[in-house]
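FAQ

Q: What does a record look like?
A: Structure on top, sequence underneath. For example:
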């Protein structure tokens, strides 16, 4: 009788990456394999004295810290790609300095990255942890008996593209909202890291015409608690209200907190902002570029809902470009303005000046309006 187990795992590579994401978020090392090479990948957040002591015997003085280009620029190394610095000793204090300290500078030559290095950084990004990893080269003997999860570097590299095409509709129900009683929530699972993504269908939009759509990245602080540091909550509620009062529309509520950096990193960036850094400087100190978000899976959600043409509610030109690249026709763009407060004024100006967001200069809530 044939073994039925393999039939239950149609895509082992995808499963191994998803398990690796869970391991990284839990602070446990993962083994990444590239051909006959293997490396123990440890997120910098997981480096404790105990982990350093346990990893030391494996490193043979060959361990390295891999940092993205954004963090290297903060260390005084101008380059467009990630790089690595040798770690003769796995020293937690030095690692924290290189990965996080605001005034730190590179203290060793920066080398080019390997396939395993780049896969380790991508795994950190998928896991929404700090974008810096320790790589400890492994021998076959070192790998044996550790009980650690192994994943192929190629599987990590291909994960985003393949996961975006594997979104699954898992539930839907009517959820009347204040000011928008005819509303349905449709939950999809998949995309990056098997997170839940929600399509909020307001009214009965006519799918034969361009549908009013907003891609709204989750913002716990603004959407739920009314933070004065951003305009996210205002944009969300205004869009829903506008759609309810007109011909309906769809809000895609995407699990991409902090421009894709994750909630914990967003709060770390807020702390840096309180020290005088603007939103993009704070992200760069942590190792992030201006925006880590991907919208391929958002386009896939729209396609599954039967939407091919949209009028996009956004101030962000990158969202327009992303949907068009993914095969969605953007027939029009509609801007949405939130309140300008003492707390968010600099933030709004920075998004306008450094990321090209089309933002109003007023100091009050302005209803969404068409931009020709």
């Amino acid at each position: 009788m044939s073994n039925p187990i393999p039939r239950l795992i149609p895509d082992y590579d995808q499963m191994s990456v998803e398990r690796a994401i869970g391991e990284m978020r839990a602070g446990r090392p993962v083994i990444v394999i590239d051909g006959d090479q293997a490396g123990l990948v440890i997120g910098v957040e997981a480096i404790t004295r105990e982990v350093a002591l346990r990893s030391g015997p494996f490193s043979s003085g060959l361990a390295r810290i891999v940092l993205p280009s954004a963090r290297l620029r903060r260390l005084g190394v101008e380059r467009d790609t990630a790089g690595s610095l040798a770690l003769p000793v796995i020293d937690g204090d030095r690692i924290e300095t290189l990965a996080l300290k605001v005034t730190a500078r590179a203290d060793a030559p920066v080398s080019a990255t390997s396939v395993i290095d780049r896969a380790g950084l991508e795994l950190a990004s998928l896991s929404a942890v700090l974008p810096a990893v320790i790589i400890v080269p492994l021998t076959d003997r070192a790998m044996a008996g550790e009980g650690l999860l192994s994943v192929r570097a190629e599987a990590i590299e291909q994960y985003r593209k393949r996961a975006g095409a594997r979104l699954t509709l898992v539930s839907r129900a009517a959820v009347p909202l204040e000011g928008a009683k005819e509303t349905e929530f449709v939950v999809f699972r998949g995309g990056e890291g098997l997170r839940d993504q929600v399509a909020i269908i307001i009214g009965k939009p006519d799918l034969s015409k361009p549908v009013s759509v907003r891609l709204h990245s989750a913002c716990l602080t603004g959407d739920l608690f009314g933070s004065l540091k951003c305009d996210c909550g205002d944009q969300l509620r205004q869009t829903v209200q506008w759609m309810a009062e007109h011909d309906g529309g769809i809000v895609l509520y995407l699990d991409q907190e902090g421009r894709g950096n994750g909630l914990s990193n967003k709060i770390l960036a807020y702390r840096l902002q309180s020290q005088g850094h603007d939103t993009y400087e704070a992200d760069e100190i942590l190792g992030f570029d201006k925006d880590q978000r991907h919208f391929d899976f958002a386009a896939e959600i729209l396609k599954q809902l039967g939407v091919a043409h949209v009028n996009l509610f956004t101030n962000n030109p990158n969202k327009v470009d992303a949907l068009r690249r993914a095969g969605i026709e953007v027939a029009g763009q509609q801007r949405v303005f939130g309140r300008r407060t003492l707390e968010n004024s600099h933030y709004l100006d920075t998004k306008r000046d450094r990321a090209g967001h089309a933002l109003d200069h007023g100091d009050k809530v302005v209803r969404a309006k068409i931009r020709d």
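Q: Is there anything notable about this one?
A: The first strand starts at residue 30 and ends at 34.
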